[in-house]
Fold DUF4352 domain-containing protein.
Amino acid sequence: MYEPNVVGDWQEYDEHAGLRVRVHRLEAGDPPRGRDDAAEGLSYFRVRVTVENRGERPVCIHLEDGQIDVRTGPDGESAFIDWRNSQFIEGFDVYPLRRATAVLYAAASQASLAQVDVQVQLRADEEWAGRRLWTGGVGVLEPSAGATAGAAREGLAQQVSLFLQEQAEEGTA
């Protein structure tokens, strides 16, 4: 894990050819089966983690509780994970050109939601892949194809997003 990805970016795994993951759709939202009593006074949000197989053979994916860590705010405090409402990927065969998505419901103080870090450690074909980190914020839009370097630089997540986009553009020239 050398540098964080921005929420919405795909991350490919060298150890599993054709397999890639992205954390996306970081947004405010209440869980479908109601709030957990332990999340009293916290603001709920959801995040989606999608695994895509661009390889030539099926890959058995595990993305369960304990393999996704969510930290919020400038101090990186652990978010409350609502395991009862979250939907994980448990031993699912992802065939070539197919995707599987996990939906995680978490809660944290409203003030800390501008900075959210999500770390994912995927297990594919019973082998652990390296950990990957995405950074973003609830209410911060994912980068779009039409985003320009002159866009407003509000909040840490947007600054990181713009910086990584600028670095990628320089590397392709």
